[in-house]
Description:
This protein is mainly alpha-helical. Helices cover 45% and strands 7% of the residues. It has helices spanning 42-63, 71-81, 97-110, 121-130, 145-151, 165-176, 194-208, 219-234, 245-256, 274-293, 316-320, 331-340, 343-354, 359-364, 378-384, 412-426, 458-472, 483-496, 499-505, 518-521, 526-544; strands at 18-25, 31-37, 86-89, 115-118, 210-211, 216-217, 370-371, 394-399, 404-409. The chain has a three-stranded antiparallel sheet with strand order 7-8-9. The protein has a two-stranded antiparallel sheet with strand order 1-2. Strand 5 (210-211) and strand 6 (216-217) form a beta hairpin. Helix 8 packs across helix 10 (274-293) and helix 18 packs antiparallel against helix 19 (499-505). The longest helix has 22 residues, at 42-63. It starts with 17 loop residues before the first strand and ends in a 21-residue tail after the last helix.
Amino acid sequence: MATRKARLSNRDSQGQFSRQIGWKVNAAGKRVQHKFRLGSDSMEAERRDGRLRELWEQVEQAGGEAALWNETTLDIARQLAKGESVIRLKLREGESDTDYARRIRSEQATFATFRILPADEMAFTRGSSKSPYHLSDCLAWPKTAHEEWLDGRDENEPMRTPILPELSAVAHRSAAEPEKVFGAVMQANDGKHLHEALWAYIEWIEQEYFDPHLDRITDNAHTKIRQVKKLMERHDDLPLLKLEFEEVETMFRYWRRRPPRRVRGDATPGPISRKSSQNYIGELKRFFKWLHRSRRFAWRKPQDFDDIDLDVPPDPIGAQKRLVQAEVFTLAELELLNRYATPLERVFLLLGLNCAFGMKEIATLTIGEVFLQQGHSREHCELLAFDSTNQHSFIKRVRRKNSVYGEFILFPQTVEAMRWALARRLRQPNPAPDQPLLLNDRCEAYDKRTKGGNRNQQIPNRLADLIRRIRDDDNKIRSLSFGKLRKTAGDLIRRVSDGEISGVFLCHAQAVKNDGLADVYTNRPFGRVFGEKRSMSLGVSSKVNSPSATSPTFSPKKRNLALDC
């Protein structure tokens, strides 16, 4: 294969994502791959990577297995790697205006899915006026004897009738590759429809996101499939032949305007959230990119596809409704949650508050990631700027969602909760270091999919049940989701520190928003996080951490629930 299809992962020493795509001949005459740097933003780098692959595929179609980057295509590729949506080709040294105009037109016809324009518009205009556009002008193919004779004709002879660029490209390519003629100029009428393509895209997701270690597709794949099925619900099954620029733009506009939710009964539907709109737009864009590359379908992206507006307007009215932009639990609510929780529920609560763990982080926490009364080495203490001893306990792990490493110093009550959880786990099968710390009463992982393939909701359901018990006892508490515990933890840290420390604590991919190279040249300040978390612990201990909170024999208020549940 000419290109590597692995996902972009680590940044290089300059803080940028990079990819080797396509082939060239180096100064030593060897055939080597060219390395492109794609920037430091992961999503933008993925977009640039896709555009580069698209370009190289077209170069390969023309050159076959021996395809190479030439001076012009490598110039185009470098501009795509920089994120340019419009490619401007410069006038080469010694190149005449006429040859410059021919070259621009040739590249426009060859790479019709990219916007290629002259960097020197005056030279292009001069060259265009001197040389009308002929079929042979846009081609690098050998000329016939008749064409050679025409090129040597007297300048006073009548000129041939110019041929439009679009028609000239089609006229030439149709002779050799009639099945590839229309590309982005017009869609091939293969009789296939949008929903058929969406189902094929689902099949691709199931193959691409299959995890052999889990022996199933990933949770992300389930989310993507659910979103694709929602796209089928909301968009008509149009023939792909009719899916041109205006129709594609209309599909994106539908989600940009936040369509109403589908509700049951006579309830008045409100618009979907801005975040949901952005998610559907992202998946729709990824579908079109896949469809453009798929050999099963003749559809190709319209020329101005990348210029379609994908931004979802903010909701200023909703933002002004409240001062608190992130819903978090109050200290009074945390006290109620702690007072009514069973020991296992309290483990969930403490992991959410102490480590900002969501449902997935709790479900995947392994036994070997818990370090009770194990301080750092002297070298690590110096790097952390924090004197840890064997009186301290930590959880050390990589966040699966974004591969960011995190360390969490544990509150005393969390240490006791971990001891209780470890003792409980030792009574269950296979308590190995690489196995989950927490299993349900059937000894199954909390992220195991249901028989119907749906997401496991046992952990958030336990919080919902806990809130119901509190309300049944005539207490006031809001019905917030389990994810709000993570937001509460981040909010409490930010109250006593700043945005950077909060970002490190939450294991954000880029803790310093205005410095994408901070993690390249410096270590994350976990020592400062540890110090702020101890301050946070003192601030909430009087409300949340009663002595009974960590007692394995503590019976929860109101109900005599099993202590191991």
